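User: Here's a chain of 243 residues. Predict its fold as tokens.
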Amino acid sequence: MSFTAPPFAPPHIEPSTKRVRVLFGGKYVVDTRHAKLVWEKPFYPNYFFSTSDLNPSYLRESSDDKERGMKVYNLVVGEHEARDAVTLYQTSDSKDLAGLFKIKFSAADAWFEEDERVYIHPKDPYKRVDVLQSSRHVRVALNGVELATTNRPRLLFETGLRVRTYMPITDAHVELLMPSDTVTECPYKGVANYFNVQLPNGEVHKDIVWYYRTPQPECGQMAGYVAFYDEKVDVWVDGEKQE
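Assistant: Prediction complete.
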């Protein structure tokens, strides 16, 4: 199979060289070195597998989408059941998908590439994430109230996304930060926790600050740093207000 650079015309299919395991109900329902990365959309891939990679005893028929040539199953292990979690492509506009199945990423208890846990979706081999130390002066304010100022930000460059500025939490006005219950996950950075900002006048702005308590190894430099949603605050870089 030939390899080309993104963006791809979906569906784009490539073999994965990684061992991939899918944990559900206390069992690895998939454990294979022959997974396929499939870009159904241009933004990121999903894992597809051959039918031989999943014991049929874990499948319970749910529905049959004859129009699209798909058969949908519940994933069942003992008393654990994930409804409509498995889709088998019986026929497809792309002949390469016929006979393959995918598992909803959120339906499984955990996914592993080799022995490393993967979150949200497989890592895109064409995506790069760099964290670079900077000496730019960055100031953040909201409704005229300063939230943070630093001369030691770390800039996160992620393919296809805007640059994000992380700064030491000690350079933020921590008295304005209130813990939030919101948690999100990223396959490249890890599990993010959030702060709300409560201004001196009592206004609360929800989830506009986030941080990674234990970031993924490739983004380990972000530990102890926080980021603000630039779209929701005022930001100056070296004295120049950002639009």
